[in-house]
User: Which sequence fits this backbone?
């Protein structure tokens, strides 16, 4: 997601993440912009949080996301902010050659 602040998408993300955790899944959240303290305080402590380097399609963001996908052995990505070009482009480049499923959602 672009940023992880306190809003509807972020709250839904927290609820979904907690339910996935309760069902035995590992959950990571990746954001382009630093989250608000309000949302981080509400985040389940079992969720791993990653921050990319700003809302852009830089090689640094692509490399960072690729490393996260590989290191965390991520097999499913749920993009909660699926319409804008930047997240789709970064995910497409970062996941090239990896076997993972993408689910895109938009509010």
Assistant:
């Amino acid at each position: 997601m672009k940023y992880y602040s306190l809003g509807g998408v972020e709250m839904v993300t927290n609820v979904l993440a907690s339910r996935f955790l309760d069902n035995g899944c590992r959950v990571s959240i990746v954001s382009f912009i630093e989250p608000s303290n309000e949302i981080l305080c509400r985040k389940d402590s079992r969720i791993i949080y990653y921050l990319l380097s700003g809302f852009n399609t830089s090689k640094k963001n692509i490399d960072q996301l690729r490393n996260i996908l590989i290191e965390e052995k991520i097999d499913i990505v749920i993009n909660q902010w699926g319409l804008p070009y930047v997240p789709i482009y970064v995910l497409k480049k970062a996941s090239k050659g990896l076997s993972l499923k993408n689910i895109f959602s938009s509010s």
